[in-house]
Design brief:
Helix 5 packs antiparallel against helix 6. The protein has two domains: 107 residues, no CATH class; 75 residues. The longest helix has 25 residues. The strands form two sheets. A six-stranded mixed sheet has the order 3-2-1-4-5-6. A two-stranded antiparallel ribbon has the order 7-8. It is α+β, with helices and mostly antiparallel strands and 191 residues long. The radius of gyration is 20 Å and the shape is elongated. A hairpin with a 2-residue loop joins strand 4 and strand 5.
Length: 191
């Protein structure tokens, strides 16, 4: 049984929409990683909450603002006791361009995947051929991204998780070097 909810802050600044879901991924960190890696955008959050991707328990509920959403797990200091759901222990909310997590309904932390795991994810996806741009001139196939493009995509993802340049820059460089070597090895196979 799930003991968490997912939601998003409405872009107009009025309210938070959230819902209980049927996912049971184990500990809360796994759901946070899943949200960040597979559904990182505001549009993804809207689809999730409105049942486009996940089975829901009930209908999405609109909360007046983030504090009211927090009352789902914190009922001691807030006004509306009707929002309290004693079985809910973890809240996720997409706000200000990132997924955030709260286990008390008051303080919200950016959900982050460790940079080494993000690096491994990028390497795995690259090896599967999921980072392409354009087409090869000699055979018309999709062309794998070059190091700079992969690095740029890595930076975008890291920033979505709240990392700053000094956090991820060395990992980005390492990833770009790996892509360069990998492409060199692929080219040597076809010569």
């Amino acid at each position: 049984m799930s003991n968490s909810m997912i939601g998003y802050n409405n872009r107009n600044g009025c309210g938070t929409t959230a819902v209980e879901h049927e996912w049971n991924l184990g500990e809360p960190e796994k759901l946070g990683k899943f949200l960040v890696m597979e559904h990182p955008t505001y549009e993804d959050a809207v689809k999730l909450v409105n049942g486009g991707i996940v089975l829901l328990k009930g209908e999405p509920k609109e909360y007046e603002h983030l504090d009211r959403y927090g009352e789902v797990i914190e009922n001691k200091i807030h006004w509306n006791q009707e929002n309290y759901k004693p079985h809910i222990k973890h809240l996720y909310c997409h706000m200000a361009g990132v997924w955030k997590y709260s286990d008390d309904g008051i303080y919200w932390e950016v959900v982050q995947v460790p940079l080494d795991e993000l690096y491994d994810h990028f390497v795995d996806e690259y090896q599967k051929g999921n980072f392409v741009e354009g087409v090869c001139s000699w055979n018309g196939d999709d062309a794998l991204m070059g190091p700079g493009s992969v690095g740029k995509r890595f930076v975008e993802k890291a920033k979505l998780m709240g990392y700053r340049k000094y956090d991820f820059d060395s990992v980005r460089k390492e990833l770009e070097d790996w892509v360069d070597i990998h492409l060199g090895n692929l080219e040597s196979k076809f010569r």
